[in-house]
Amino acid sequence: MPEKSRKSLKVNRSKLAHKAAYAVRNPARIAPYLRRAARDGWLRFRSPDHVAYYRAVMASDTASNPEAAVGSRSHERWLALGQMQFDYLQRHGLQKQHRMLDIGCGNLRAGWRFIDFLEPGHYYGIDISPDILVAAKKTLVGYGLQEKVPYLTPTQDLTLDFLPTGHFDVVHAHSVFSHSPIEVIDECLAHVGRVLAPDGFFDFTFDRTEGAEHQVLREDFYYRTETLTNLALRHGLEARFMDDWEQLPHGQSKIRVARPGARALEGPERRGAPEKVER
Ligand SMILES: C[S@@+](CC[C@H](N)C(=O)[O-])C[C@H]1O[C@@H](n2cnc3c(N)ncnc32)[C@H](O)[C@@H]1O
Predict the structure, then answer these.
(1) Which residue has the higher pLDDT, 216 or 180?
(2) Lipid metabolism among the record's keywords (predicted)?
(3) Cβ neighbours, 10 Å, residue 261
């Protein structure tokens, strides 16, 4: 069973010393890293606004390989990561009749399984990247899920202003806040409560640190758990750290937020975590 070491939780990946030690241990990764840093530097120069920048990153990555663009090294891993998300959510309350909002749905790595499971018209996927949504439509066609009439919509922000009040039983964001500066997360938490049904919940993953919060290439952001739970609280939501997610072979951590007292928040609280493997 994977376990995130105390050391990996304290590491600051933005520090030069960490990068140098990593390069010595992984010389084959130096050239790809430098290429990525140069590409990202150019994209940041062209798009100082984070969402525009990350949309450009996704356009570039999707053009090469949509499955790699959402973080999977191979088709087998793409299938496995989708299955992991689906199985976990089904074990933690997802029901066929639920209405689900999948924030940052990507190319439907997990989305096609949710669409297949839910009643027609009950899946709503949004993403900042039109390119990945085009890839999402291909996934939908590939699995023959047209009759499930899911919504797939590009978005510029996370105000969720085009969505109805009290509508969604489940809101989900897998590997989205791990790529988001705090303002984006704040915006989402400020507005998600409005679209949640009374007993609804919002599950999201994040890259956890127990040391200094930091980011790498403005692509990967590391937060302390309490930063995010306090932010949720400021927006009138209670949070639960989903400790059993940490037993799975996935490098991120998971938090569930809901209205105070919601049944979905019930559960034991423990800590522990795996090594980062993929997003
Ligand atoms: C690592 S991928 C994960 C995709 C999908 N959730 C999955 O697990 O396969 C992150 C996705 O989030 C999208 N994204 C990043 N920031 C976003 C934001 N602020 N709002 C909506 N989507 C966002 C990206 O375009 C990308 O498709």
Answers:
(1) 180
(2) yes
(3) 9
Domain 6-265 belongs in CATH node 3.40.50.150: yes
- 263 close to 58: Cβ distance less than 8 angstroms: no
Residue 192 CB partners (closer than 8 Å, separation 6+): 158, 160, 171, 202, 237, 257
Over the stretch 16-75, which tens digit does the pLDDT of each residue have?
Answer: 778 777 777 877 778 788 888 888 888 888 887 999 999 999 999 999 999 999 999 999
Q: Mark residue 123 as left, alpha or beta (left: phi above 0; alpha: psi -120 to 50; beta: remaining).
A: beta
Under the banding of pLDDT at 50, 70 and 90, the label for residue 6 is low
Domain ranges of the chain: 6-265
Which protein residues are within 6 Å of ligand 1, measured from CB? 51, 54, 58, 70-71, 103-106, 109-110, 126-129, 132, 155, 158, 174-176, 179-180, 184, 279
What's the one-letter identity of residue 245? W
Distance CA 151, CA 127 (A): 11
Q: Which two tokens stand for residue 78?
A: 């793409």
Q: How far apart are CA 62 and CA 135, in angstroms?
A: 8
